[in-house]
Amino acid sequence: MKIEKIVDGIVLFDNGTRMFSEHESECCEHHWAEFSQLNLYNLNPKTGDVISITDLDFPERIEDNIQLIEGEGFNLVASDGSKYFVPCYGENNGYYSTNLELVIDKKVPLKVKIMIDLRDYQKIEWC
What we know:
By secondary structure, the protein is an all-beta fold. It has strands at 3-7, 10-13, 18-22, 30-33, 66-69, 73-77, 83-92, 101-106, 112-117, 123-126. The strands form two sheets. The chain has a five-stranded antiparallel sheet with strand order 1-2-3-8-9, with no helix packed on it. Strands 4, 5, 6, 7 and 10 form a five-stranded mixed sheet that branches. The N and C termini lie far apart (40 Å).
């Protein structure tokens, strides 16, 4: 499957799958995955070829191709093994929840919502 577009923090794939981050805010804290970073890739880090993120193939079981990086974010691994980093951030005073989840909302073959805990995989600014 291919990325169709990235808009308003949601990655839309051509098969109807959506990927986004979710944090239930309690007050003044914010936690998110910065998917817009994917639009900045113009070279395949594995081959050095010029690319557009929308030209890459990703496996249907995208949840098996998420490589978590503690304190930073995660890599989205394409079908050819090339990795594309998505940073995750938080702003929190320490009183509120730091929960952050990666949501993969699949439409095919069955409608399934997969949640991956990103709490330990974000760079948090304590304020």
